[in-house]
Design goal:
The chain is mainly alpha-helical. The protein has one domain (5-175): dinb family like domain (Four Helix Bundle (Hemerythrin (Met), subunit A), Up-down Bundle). 59% of the residues lie in helices and 3% in strands. Helix 3 (39-61) packs antiparallel against helix 6 (147-160). The relative contact order is 0.25.
Length: 176
């Protein structure tokens, strides 16, 4: 089941942790304009959403609820192409929007390391047992994901935000 998810997730986490050294805390808190996220808020979003995805995947391992529900065409397209649409969506009501600013860089780095640890534990658990349950994605257009799909989506989500990171890098480089 693991489909090399653990190695792929670790690469994502290590990359984002390494990018962190490029910024001061002040830079992490600067946003290009009112109503847009700073780099720090992007990091916080990735940390918070990945933590929720890991928990959802674990819940899927422990349940057979919705196991017969087929993947919908929007989600299937994402998993087949490995690309999440760049169309902006409204964040679910349970998500802090905008995300909080980070307290410090160490908090971000520690949180990324915790995600990596939690993801590794999830992969190990998935090898021992999987009841095949599915839980809905907060975006109703994406339907139900099983544990493996939640793992894959968490990796795709980090990659999805690289363009946003690059745009923020351009903004920050102009401020130097």
């Amino acid at each position: 089941m693991a489909n090399n998810y653990e190695a792929r997730f670790k690469v994502c986490i290590n990359d984002w942790d390494n990018y962190l050294s490029d910024y001061t805390l002040e830079e992490l808190k600067q946003s290009p304009e009112q109503g847009t996220w700073s780099m720090g808020q992007l990091y916080m979003h990735l940390i918070e959403s990945s933590d929720r995805m890991i928990k959802r995947a674990e819940n899927c391992l422990n349940s057979n609820e919705n196991s017969a529900v087929a993947i919908n065409s929007s989600a299937e397209k994402i998993f087949n192409t490995g690309i999440i649409s760049e169309q902006k969506i409204k964040a679910p009501t349970h998500v802090t929007n905008p995300p909080e600013q980070p307290v410090n860089k160490e908090f971000i780095s520690d949180a990324l390391k915790k995600l990596s640890h939690d993801f590794s534990a999830l992969v190990a658990k998935s090898k021992q047992f999987n009841k095949g349950g599915k839980l809905p994605h907060p975006n109703p257009n994406l339907g139900m994901f099983n544990a493996e799909q939640w793992m894959d989506f968490s990796i795709l989500h980090f990659n999805h935000h690289l363009k946003q990171k690059n745009q923020l890098d351009v903004f920050l480089s102009k401020k130097k």
